Amino acid sequence: PAPPSKEDLRLISGYCVCQNLSESLGTLCPSKGLLFVPPDIDRSTVELRLGGNYILRITQQDFANMTDLVDLTLSRNTISYIQPFSFGDLETLRSLHLDNNRLMELGPDDLRGLVNLQHLIVNNNQLGRIHDKAFEDLAPALEDLDLSYNNLLSLPWDSVRQMINLHQLSLDHNLLDFIPEGTFIDLERLARLDLTSNRLQKLPPDPIFARAQDSMILTTPYAPQLSLSLGGNPLHCNCEMLWLRRLERDDDLETCASPPALKGRYFWNVKEEEFVCQPPLITQHTHRMLVLEGQTASLRCEATGDPSPTIHWISPDDRLLGNSSRTAVYSNGTLSITITTSKDYGTFTCIAANVAGESTASVEVSIVQLPHLSNGTGQPAQPKSRLSDITGTTRISKGAPKSQPERAVSVSEVTAVSALVQWTVSKSAPKVKMYQLQYNCSDDEVLIYRMIPASSKAFLVTNLVSGTRYDLCVLAAWDDSATTLTATNVVGCTYFFTQDDYPQCQSLPSQLLGGTMILVVGGIIVATLLVFIVILMLRYKAADTEPPVGKLTSVSDTHSQTNGGRLGQNGLLMSQSQPHPQPAPKIKAKVSLQDEVVDFRRTYLKRHLCFGCSLSTERQEEMFDEDMI
């Protein structure tokens, strides 16, 4: 909200009715419709009551410098947020009432600074979470803590354990389902513990509950009789609650919710011999496991019992396994080994334990090592496995000698980028569901997997790197009839080298040959046309030269009749009727021959050399006439 104006402050100050036993001793402003803490409250106030208003939040400025404040009441407001360190100056505060608000959580610094607080009342809120450090400052001095009627699933139990001066602890009407053992062991002054209407199935057997008996006579201020309320919890009446049944108490109407045989019966009416437990029984577990080195292994172990047993795992070297960077134990009993090594080879032990006893089961783990070259000897390391190979015989008659299994995996047709892998399986082997082919390059440790149907006994591996060593194993997946689980077993392992990819002389591809022929034929045609054009130009250029005078005398007769004529010296026909022709004028003969030559050149060039010209017809005529082409 926006900061109030001076007029608002004046109205607020006049609206608050302050009743002081002495000057500035107390300020009472209940049910005045306030939306925020009045900022003009006397900083030397000892008691401040702001209940029954509509205050939305608490800020650091609200109670700053109130170093004398002892009692602060903020009940029945609409507070949903407390700014961290808002109570930092209230070192003398003894009582804080925050009940009937809308708080949903308490942060680590919301109550910081309340080192002398004795009474903290936070019931009837909507608390679902309290930070582990929320009670850090106030725990040693606190005497009364009320957290009832909230939605708490858990509490900062470590802080509760430090409340050594606590007299009353009200946790009723929450959602608590577990209280750690030893929580109340140091709370010697605790006189009232209310755990009504939670989800508790059992209580930890702390000595403090011995003071909850009705026959308790020797009580002191430091060890008062304990008022314990447990009604409304789904108590599980087994041997873990027998200690509580043996206490001498009146019937508080607590009832048993389980086991089924005792459901609905009054807790204090059940006989002691009926509070029994069931020892653990391992129902399912992994019997054998074969895993490729470096892969994840999950070992199952499920058990039943009353109470529910806790699962522990023991490694082959007798170490208790827990959660680490390489192993994890889950609540359902499964042990997960994220990266297996050769040291994991051996027998793992699953232990299921509860208060009634324990049960064990063994899991045999074999590690299949990929064959790698070692010490530069060129010999692949042999995989370690205690399990018989799936290629071998599963049933051997008594007295029959064991035969060494033949090579089950082979590699053939190896090229630079591919290889054909083949394998064989014994007819007496279990029915295989599928095969798994695993291989990796010698240059790295990345495994490549290929899932292959059970009907196949060969697989073409492609996309390989040339000139490289590959290590390869074939595994088979089959149904274990003993556990009805899917088991895996190794068929065989081998290695191979891909060929080096050297460049070789190869015939020209047909596509390249066809394109080359087209270019060659086209080049020949173009060259022929050019030669023909050059010959024509040279021929007519020669004809354009001026002939001798004597040879031009017969040119005027070129249009005469040729019947009976003879061939002259220039290859022209001469008339026999005129054995002695009269010489014609030289200029006329020359002009006639040149005109014919020019007309021929013009016609030829127009048809053959000027196609595609962008010049107009008139311009071409001028250029021909001027011999510019």
UniProtKB/TrEMBL annotation:
Compositionally biased residues, Polar residues: 553-564
KW Membrane (keyword) present: yes
Main location: membrane
Membrane topology: Single-pass type I membrane protein
Intracellular or extracellular location(s): Cell membrane; Membrane; Synapse
PANTHER family: LEUCINE-RICH REPEAT AND FIBRONECTIN TYPE-III DOMAIN-CONTAINING PROTEIN 2, SYNAPTIC ADHESION-LIKE MOLECULE SALM
Name the UniProt record assigns to this protein: Leucine-rich repeat and fibronectin type-III domain-containing protein 2
Organism listed in the record: Seriola dumerili (Greater amberjack)
